[in-house]
Predict the 3D structure of the following.
Amino acid sequence: MGLFRKYVNQTRKPAGFLGKMMLGGMNGGHAKLADWGMLHLKGLNPEQIAELGCGGGRNAGELLKKYPNSKLIAIDYSDLSVEKSRAYNEKTIKEGRCVVRQGDVSKLDLPDCSHDLATAFETVYFWPGIEKCFAEVCRVLKTGGTFMICNESDGTDETSLRFEKIIDGMKCYTVEELKAALSAAGFSKVTADHHDQKPWITVIAVK
């Protein structure tokens, strides 16, 4: 495997030196996308937030700024991502507002109906068995709770589809595929927005 391919494969589960390089660029590289996605979170006042696939931890921090009265758990299955996210959110962790831990989205170690909001930025491409994972998210949300997916790829753009061929386990989903999987997982209402200039998508599912 060439160096470039080894590097881009770190997007799935960062580890080692290349993983540190990847995480170093994630927070800044995905910031505009994430901020655009968060604009779709309207009329919410969540007490408990789950940030799934938290990467470098920047989005967890922004959610805590957006909702200053909330508590948040950030989960990633990469040890390196957990380490980076803890360092990034050190202040809110000390305040007792943030917890970062390793976990698997296909079997979340969270109680039923315990969270008001769950988010997934640039991560569902790598979730194992998308309907099963979405059902787990649905399980941990309260009735009326919101799940937001924010992706840089709409599943049809050429750039992302090229990366899909070289990144192990990556799957770029269309809006229609995400809507179908979310509905099958138990969500009652699913809406989506497509950026007017880029292949970015934000999908909002309500339990």
